[in-house]
Each structure stands twice: as C-alpha cells, then as structure tokens.
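Q: I'm building a small set of examples for a reading group on sequence design. Run inverse folding on the following structure and report the sequence directly after it, with nothing in between.
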C-alpha cells in the first residue's frame, strides 16, 4: 500500500479566531501553523490566505508573501493554493494564485449551496476555464468534489480535454449542501473514481477523523486542518493544525500505514518528472 499523504488545510476562508484562537490570519501565524503541521507529518499545505484582520483574499501579492514565507521555513513542503476563494469572487479573482505557477492548485468541480443564501458557483464553463488555465501553466489540479455528480463532471471534462490524467480527487464530505460524511457515502464516492486516480478525503467537522480512518484503511490519503474542523475531540479545541495531523499519524501507525515525505508525496501525485 502507498505511503499516506497528509494534507493540512491550515486556515480556510470561513473559519475565524472566534471559532478557535489558533486560526491563523497573519503571515507569521500562517508560517507557525504550516510548521506545526509539517513537523507532525504533513507533506502538503492546502493554502487559503487572509489579510491581518482575517478577511479572506485571493490577491496574488498576498499569496506570494505567504508562500515565500512558508517556503523559507519549509523548503520541501508541497504548497497547494486554493482557487475556491470565497463566495462571490469572480473567476479571474479566484485564479490569481495560479499566476505564481504552483505545483498544484484546487479545481472545484460543481456548484454547491453553502447554506442560507450562499451559493458557491462553479458552472461548467468555469470548470473548463480553470482546467485550461492549469493545463497551460503546468499545474496539477486537485479536483475538489462535494458530491457524486461532481466526479461525473470531472470525468466528462477529462474526456473533452480540460483535465489531464492521472487525476487526483479531494472528496470533501459533510459540507452543508453536499454529500454527508457517513461511511456509506464514502464507499459510494470512492467506488465512483477511476482506477488510476489518487484521492484524498476531507471530512468536515465530526466526520474528519472517521473518514480519515476509512481512507487510511482503503489506501487513500487524508486532509485535516482548521479549514475543516477546529476540534481535536468532542468539545476539545485543537491547539494547532499540528495536533490534528499528529492524531492522523497515530491512527496510521496503529493501522500499519507509513507516512509519506514531501518527496514521496510528489512521486505518488505525479509531480516529479
């Protein structure tokens, strides 16, 4: 079985210090949380950025500032910018970090009701536009899917030439408006992926660690972090992203699964030539 790639989604665009005081906003805080995750065993940092007051942004200059600071501290870690941004941002606004030519970036494969009046828009033309952009820049997309229909969309657009193989999926489960994080639904989503694809599971809230366990057993990969869940266990706030990563490492050790280094993760994901 392949070694386990652990992704740390260190801040997201929605979670706030009001939810957990350790959520990072500033460049220094971003570096601190990336370091904590890396030291615990994460080989990949899924990155949103904020201004110092916590406002989410896709500003290329802010991404460059944060990426450069993390890279200075952790030269070998994989940094994966989000192109999801926040609800209401335009396509080109969301795509700004791709201009920095990262190894990977996220590509959301469908529209989702986030609750209330918030709709995360990803039309078919948006997905095509993002896919073409990433192909032109040599960026491997992580295909974020919140439901089975989004897997189908990704496969269809691959056949039309907008997404290259081998594909890497992120099964984001338990989001309001998307598929639940029950084991039944994990089996359904996992069974819908092509045989030559790799995948990561991101369980939201209480689903984070049960789905991590399922992915470890199945041979998939795991995402944890403050973007998805701020608790180490019920009612106990995590002191850092590193604590969440360390819990996955302990689970993997009990199940006999080794943890991938950044170099090994690059090989598994096809980021090395």
């Amino acid at each position: 079985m392949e070694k386990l790639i652990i992704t740390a989604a260190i801040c997201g665009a929605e979670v706030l210090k009001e939810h957990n005081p350790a959520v990072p906003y500033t460049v220094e805080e971003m570096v601190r949380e990336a370091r904590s995750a890396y030291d615990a065993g994460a080989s990949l940092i899924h990155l949103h950025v904020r201004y110092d007051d916590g406002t989410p942004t896709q500003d290329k200059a802010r991404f460059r500032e944060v990426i450069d600071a993390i890279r200075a501290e952790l030269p070998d870690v994989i940094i994966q910018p989000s192109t999801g941004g926040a609800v209401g941002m335009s396509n080109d606004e969301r795509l700004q970090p791709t201009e920095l030519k990262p190894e990977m970036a996220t590509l959301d494969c469908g529209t989702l009701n986030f609750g209330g009046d918030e709709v995360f828009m990803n039309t078919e033309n948006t997905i095509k536009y993002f896919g073409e952009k990433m192909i032109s820049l040599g960026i491997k997309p992580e295909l974020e899917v919140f439901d089975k229909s989004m897997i189908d969309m990704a496969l269809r657009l691959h056949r039309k030439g907008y997404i290259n193989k081998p594909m890497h999926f992120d099964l984001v489960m338990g989001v309001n408006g998307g598929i639940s994080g029950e084991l039944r639904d994990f089996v359904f989503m996992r069974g819908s992926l092509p045989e030559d694809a790799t995948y990561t599971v991101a369980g939201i809230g209480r689903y984070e660690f049960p789905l991590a366990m399922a992915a470890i057993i199945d041979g998939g990969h795991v995402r944890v972090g403050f973007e998805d869940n701020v608790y180490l266990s019920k009612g106990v706030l995590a002191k850092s992203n590193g604590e969440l990563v360390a819990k996955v490492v302990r689970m993997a050790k009990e199940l006999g699964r080794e943890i991938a280094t950044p170099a090994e993760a690059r090989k598994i994901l096809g980021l090395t030539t």
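Residues 6-269 form a domain with the TIM Barrel fold (CATH 3.20.20.70).
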